[in-house]
Structure formats: C-alpha cells, structure tokens
Amino acid sequence: MTVGFVAFRYPVPAHFDEFVARVHKVRAVLRSSPGCLSAECWVTSEGDAVVSTAAWDSDDTYSAAFAAVFSAGVDATFDERECRPRQIFELESR
Fold this sequence. Notes:
With 94 residues, the protein is α+β, with helices and mostly antiparallel strands. The chain has one domain: 2-Layer Sandwich (Alpha-Beta Plaits). The protein is built from 2 helices and 4 strands, in the order βαββαβ. Strands 2-3-1-4 form a 4-stranded antiparallel β-sheet. It is globular, with a radius of gyration of 13 Å. The protein starts with a strand and ends with a strand.
C-alpha cells in the first residue's frame, strides 16, 4: 500500500519565499529517503499557501523519512513565520 500526505502551510507574506526555501530543504531529505516515490512543493496561485505532497511505498518508509528530516536538523517547525495552523492530511492508496 502506498502512503503519503498533502500539507497546507500558510506563511506570513513577508516570509513566503523563505518558507518555500524551507520546504524545498525538507523535500530534498524526503526524496533521498528509502521508499520515497515522490515529494513536491507547490504554491497556490493566490500566493497564500505552500502545499507539499509526498508518497512512500510503505508505512515504515514513511515514518523513517520523517525521522530523517528531524535527524538532518532541517527547519520544519511551526512558528511565528506562519499566520495560521498547518493542515496536514495523511493518505493511503486503496
């Protein structure tokens, strides 16, 4: 079964480009993780949200990928650079 996520993040406008760069760093770690099938960074046409998507070949590789992000010291924490809570949807193929 393939597993993954779609995440919507809402950076403060003054930090939008910086936030996109942060998501690209996370994406690089995720893409290098075993079992990663895809990892992408998108922005809404309104410029109010950064959307990331990713998929893995199993629950185990999905979990290991996020452990790798934290081990790599990549800045993925929610803080004052975001103007509203993130929306993260975990997915599984059927």
